[in-house]
Amino acid sequence: MTPQPRRASRIRRGTIGALLTTTLAALSLPLATPASATGPASPPAAGTYLITLADQPLVTYDGSVDDLPATRPTAGKKLDVTSANAKRYRSHLTDEQTHVAKKVGATVSQHYAVTTNTFSAHLNAAQLVQLARTEGVTNIAPDRFHQATDDKNSADFLGLSGRKGLWAALGGTAKAGRGIVVGDIDTGIWPESASFKAPALTARKSTGKPGRKPTKNDLYRPYLDGTTTVMHKADGTTFTGTCQTGESFTAAACNEKIISARYFGEGWLRNVPESNRGGYISPRDSEGHGTHTASTAAGNAGVRATADGNDLGTISGVAPAATVAVYKALWQSKDGTQDGGLTSDLVAAIDQAVADGVDVINYSLGAMFESDYDDPSQVALRNAAAAGIFVATAGGNAGPEAASLDNTAPWTTTVAAGTIAPYTGTVTLGNGKSYTGISTSVHDTVGSAPLVRAAAVKNADADTADADLCIAGTLDPALTAGKTVVCDRGTNARIDKSAEVKRAGGIAMVLVNLRNESSDGDLHSIPTVHLSGSDATAVRDYAATDDATATLTSGGKGATYPQVAGFSSRGPSLVGKGDLLKPDITAPGATILAAVAPPGNHGRDFDFYSGTSMATPHIAGLAALYLSEHPTWSPMSIKSAMMTTASPTKSDDGKNSGDVFAQGAGEVEARAMLRPGLVYDSNEQDWLAYLEGVGIDTRTGAEAIDPSDLNYPSIAIGELFGTQTVTRTVTATSAGTYRAKVDLPGIKATVSPSVLHFSHAGQKRTFTVKLDVTTAHSGALDTGSLTWTSGRTTVRSPIAVTPQSVHAPDEVKGTGTSGETTYSVTPATSTLTATANGPVSSPLTKGTLTGTAAETYYEANIPAGTKASQITIHFDPAADTIVGVVWGRMVDGVLQDGAFADPDSNGTSTISLRQPNAGTIFVAVVALGSTDDTVTPYTYQVNNITEDSPVTGKVTVTPDHARVTPGTPTDLTATWSGVPAGARSTVWIEYPNGAGTFLTLN
Q: Where are the alpha helices (DSSP H) in 681-815?
């Protein structure tokens, strides 16, 4: 794919649309429905926003401001925020932020200066429009919510343990990760857990001399300097942190394992009323998620795990000798509707982690929709990576739907969740058939006992559907006692279902999936087996028969592993437009046993969790192991080493999977990753060039590259149009001669040069891969790999390309009740079809906006089966009036995301939606007049194009079917007649594979 035009070249500089990122907060904005012509009492556009300014933050500042020296760390060094230069420049940035806020009458809520030059403030629509026109403002983003993304021993599965394991190769668990600090941005920590047991931090004596400073044999042991934790690290730099006190959390909670703990909740506390706040206002974890991720990444080795009186064996963190710095930014609400963290708090946590000097950031959280590259949290993570910090991010738990990922930026390592050897249990039915599923709670034989569907033993007044789900209070103890109950998955928590069966006197539960979902090893309150697929259907159907019985036993042959878990989010990345393959890699994330916080886990100290959140700390821990051996390696080199040595996951049939949008490069191989042979490295300048290539104006002067040419360990082309050549540079980690091989069906691949010679480590070589479409189907994903081989060393990069059928303009315009326009398209195949749908011209709604900050709101309904929609707002403003449109998707009356639509030179704002999902689009119409009595007339119109839309006129395209030469432009002529003169008409011209062009008339 060729570089996209910069946003600044498509949208006037200083306009709203050029600055606002494309997602709006679902929960931080006081939204209301239905919208009316006069608008609701709480304007939907009002809320907390993050405003980013043009000057560089501390971590990348190069000295470009007069009299302020550079603060950017030199290669191999970390940022020193305590230096005089850093303090001066930080003061400059915060003063600048305050000045900009005052210009629009706003007050700064939070300042950020380490990883991003940003401030947060509560703004209304008028202030938003004013800021968008303020010089130096580069981005405006709503403060949105982010949520935690929720061998039987993952350490054994990864090959860490044992005489030949990676820990042994690194000198044992006492040295595995030594000198490395893992920063965990999550729900906090339960410090009393055995996974974090360690000696207390020793304070300096009153004389100023250290009471117990690290010895030569223990250089990396942390110690206290007053209230500051100090730790000298493997890379020669120093970590400084603190143990922030708060509710049920004292400074004594930190030790030589948990060396620092802070919390960030200003944004969340401002948005969530005190009556709905759960948990602790401190670094203490009430939910268990943060404790689970921290103990997975860097918990102690050989910790005995028990739950409900059962011995679950021993567990270990991936990097047991590493230390943990806690940054709590995810919070718990009492009713669950406001769980998570706001962007403003997450950016503050990232900022502080970089300032403290962590080596690795574990980011096991995500948003409802894929985050843009210029989202403030992603920008902060980019600059953290630029500072040399490895960032592991969760891909999300919205699988197996396509394009459901989050955290897809190239500077982070996006992690998918895979299965490990399952805990199993078997259900043997009275008809002799047996079915094995997931179970961590069947230890002894249960039954034979009557087997029933839950609805068959419900209370008389309970809803049948609720009873089948085993909703609390739906089962009748008189009917349930002594039985094994089949409960359907869905609606309520899985463990709440078994609790209901237990309450009603049932002795066991069989949990069944009704659709394609994961099977999970929850610690249920009664013996439970979780079944899916045809096994679930068979048991559910049998339970509905007379005199059905079942026996539950421990064990049984489980599913092939590792597989990518069903819940794990899939690619492609829509933000990357198919030119960057995500996720990057798969790690254990299903039924992972680790430490938890007892308050949120029925009093347990350990529990099984599943999610990409659980996979991510495995990668974070492996990065810590890597850095303990190679302290100065770049984050991207480490990612490359993991990706190119990964192995394919498995499909249901036990064969190697080729689904790169599920697994990325494959399952991480801990022992192989330390011997990668070659690595693909990239840095901040490469990422900026990539951003320019995808159409983001970074305002840094970076020259755009084709996004597919980012020096990445995988190759992706979203639109392979006939032929394309990509470029890569590899760095050798040892001497060798490597030979290339490409496996990519239907495409001819030519690697040049195909042999690379390296005489020593550190040498770089550049090569190209030319891809020519031969028999690959247009519009269908084609996957394969590029492998470099030298002796027993293989360096494998996944490839994902999509041949395309046509290049055509997004929109062509015409005027008049009749006419024609000719435009050019470039086909990729020898046959071109073009079909006109429409024209559609819906009735206009007329209105006026009066005053200096006027708003009105509409909700546009998009019916199922819509091919394309066009929402048009035409303004007739006075010369000094500023107008604009805020819009976004709504779910259950709540705005989920959004963007700005700027008016063109004729005063018309247009929202064009290609193949939109059915639902509701929220539209806010805004006018900022110069006086209180300024009147701005406008019209509002929604044109939905479906198979049965009533047409208003006639449109034809010629030729509508033609034999053409692939790669050669050809002209199409659209002709229209009978369209209304006083309103817009919309036409969707459709090409093969769903591609299309809007024809906008009048």
A: 684-693
